[in-house]
Amino acid sequence: MRKLFTLSFVTLAIAACSDSGSVTEPTTSLVSATAADSRDHEWNDMGGDEDDDRDPRVKTYRVTITNLTTGQPMSPAVLVTHNRRASLFGAGERASAGIRAIAEDGDPSVAAAALNGARGVYSVVTTTAPVGIKGGTAFPNSLSVEITARGNAKLLSLSTMLICTNDGFGGLDAVRLPRGRRAQVYYAAGYDAGTEKNTEVASSIVPPCFGIGPVQGPMGGGDRTPEMGRIRHHRGIKGIADLTAAHDWKGPVAKVVVQRID
Which CATH superfamily is domain 2-260 in? Predict the structure, then answer.
């Protein structure tokens, strides 16, 4: 799977690198989206306009993801609105096949396929473009997408690969969608999927890292050393091989602004 992903992603990265301009304003990406009705789960609502689980209105939200790092470009992402019966990931859990595909290959399609039609899921969206590093020029530093929800699907989760890692990803785990029109701001942490050892060797890092990341270098490759760990907060880049301090980060990896627009 890694080879198929990296070939298409490298092509995208090379094309983007031909643009010397730096774009830092939120940019709307093309998205693919599907929706499935969700059921069940009582929700303890806080503030906002009148609403309850029986509300038939479909609400639309704009989600803007801004990369806060200077060393970790982010892959296309998967976003999902859901209730408490559904989950994209959770710290301390084993990574699903979908999270592994994102964290190792930057491929959101596996997670999207598993979520579409799943119990408790309302809408699934995948983006088609990376989010560039802070101060970088290869890709915009932010992108905005729209996603819908209805009834008791009042949670939002998302995941995107931290490209210059073995199996790192940025994510939000079941945060509340805003009830009113006021924007809600969240900060996505960096996670380690626990599926691949953090060797930091170029041959085990997806090629786009060295094409669009902060440091130019070897093309990368499809080597990987599996491990059977659990999802945990990522400890950052150690600089033990081909990745360097330039790829490291401190604190949250992304700012996520969610606002109801309809």
Answer: F-spondin domain (2.60.40.2130)
